Amino acid sequence: MPSCREISALVSKGLDKQLSLSERFAVRCHLMICRACRNFQKHSLIMRKISQAYLAQLGKSKP
């Protein structure tokens, strides 16, 4: 079973590129039993959406 540190690295990696099947499986299994990692994934996704919205807004405001 991968550690929380390994899973958080995979969650972060998965924000930028698609994980392999085995990596996705490891993340899903771990997230079923680990609330801290579920929270990390949730907050990472929220921060990604906020950052993208902010960058989109900056792009609209330039002349």
UniProtKB/TrEMBL annotation:
InterPro entries cross-referenced by the UniProt entry: Znf_put
Name of one Pfam family that matches: zf-HC2
Occurrences of domain Putative zinc-finger (ranges): 4-38
Name of the protein this chain belongs to: Zf-HC2 domain-containing protein
Source species: Methylomonas paludis
